[in-house]
Amino acid sequence: MTSKNKQTIIAVLSNSGGAGKSTIVRNVGYEMSKLGSKVALIDLDPQHNLDLFCGFPLAEQMDNTIIRVLSEKYDGLWSLSPIPNEHIDVCRGHIGMAEIQNELVNRRRSEYVLADRLHKSPLPHDTILIDCPATLGKICENAIVAANYVLIPLILEDKALSGLNGLIQWLQVLNEDLNLNPPPQILGIIPNAYDAKSGTHRKCLEFLQEITQKMNLRLYPTINQSNEIKNANGNGLAIGKYRSGHKAAKEFRTLTNQILAVINQP
Ligand SMILES: Nc1ncnc2c1ncn2[C@@H]1O[C@H](COP(=O)(O)OP(=O)(O)OP(=O)(O)O)[C@@H](O)[C@H]1O
Ligand SMILES: [Mg+2]
After folding, report:
1. Does pLDDT of 2 surpass 70?
2. Nearest residue CA, atom 30 of ligand 1?
3. Is residue 207 part of a domain?
4. Mean pLDDT of 165-189
5. Most-buried pick from 5, 25, 38, 48 (CB within 10 A)?
């Protein structure tokens, strides 16, 4: 278990594409499961890359995906796919989520659909990681309402850093508009795909240290740029399984331990 009694639901969010959301969900999920937590991953992104990172072919049928859960005709059943030889279940994504996003706008409790499903048909897992799309819309709002924690990966580019303020403001406005009580706790920022040889990356990391301090946000150690992470994703495996002794696998282990320390602090 990650926390004493309560189910831990973490939305992995960013407002820029390619920041590493799906990679973080896959690998932090894996490390948490290795520590004994029963883990579920939910793919809310219409691009559903997480499926590939988990070794699943892209689903054509909607029945065994998140579409079944979020559809208006929900039958009370989650459809989960277990990752072979891992203690992780995945609620797979589907391109049809793009349509669901439009359709949600006209529904009652449009931001609460996922939270309502998790409330009425609870998953038995200790930890649920939600992979969000890069565009802040109804789907991300559903993730935030359902979550009790938010994790934010960032790549070290000026554009991503200048977008961080906007993302935090978006979260605050959502919390206020929906009167979320308590709002999900921001676990912190993960600088991903860092290359210490790049002057731009080093400069951006320094700037990120300054702004996170000012914004009172926790900054986790970097996950370095590594082709092995790409290869692990491409092979449908967590880096901890693909090459458990690799530096990148150790970085994810450290990151996961630090996240758990924040979640479990009294
Ligand atoms: N630390 C890293 N080093 C090298 N490649 C990485 C690293 N992290 C992620 N990648 C690769 O970068 C790409 C983007 O990562 P990922 O898909 O996890 O980001 P995302 O935020 O989920 O993107 P999207 O917004 O498109 O959903 C992928 O090809 C992934 O394999
Ligand atoms: Mg993704």
Report:
1. no
2. 230
3. yes
4. 96
5. 25
For residue 2, being part of any structural domain is answered with no
In contact, 150 and 11? CB cutoff 8 Å: yes
Count of domains observed in the chain:
1
Does residue 47 belong to any structural domain of this protein?
A: yes
Q: Is 50 in the pocket of ligand 1 (CB under 6 A)?
A: no
Is residue 62, in this structure, part of any structural domain at all? Answer: yes
Please say whether the beta carbons of 262 and 218 come within 8 A.
yes
Whether 263 contacts 82, CB under 8 Å: no
**Ligand 2 is an ion; residues with CB less than 5 A from it:** 21-22, 49
Q: Tell me what the mean pLDDT of segment 170-196 comes to.
A: 97
Cβ of residue 246 lying under 6 Å from some atom of ligand 1: no
Q: Decide whether any atom of ligand 1 lies within 6 Å of the 188 Cβ.
A: no
pLDDT higher than threshold 80 for residue 214: yes
pLDDT on residue 5:
62
The string of pLDDT tens digits covering residues 93-131 is 999 999 999 999 999 999 999 999 999 999 999 999 999
Domain residue limits at 146:
8-261
**Which residue's CA is minimally distant from atom 5 of ligand 1?**
230
Based on C-alpha coordinates, what's the Rg of the chain? 17
Distance between Cα 56 and ligand 2 center (Å): 15
- Which amino acid is residue 38, in one-letter code? K
- Centre of ligand 1 to C-alpha 160, Å, is 14
Instruction: Report the CATH number that the domain containing residue 12 is assigned in CATH.
Output: 3.40.50.300
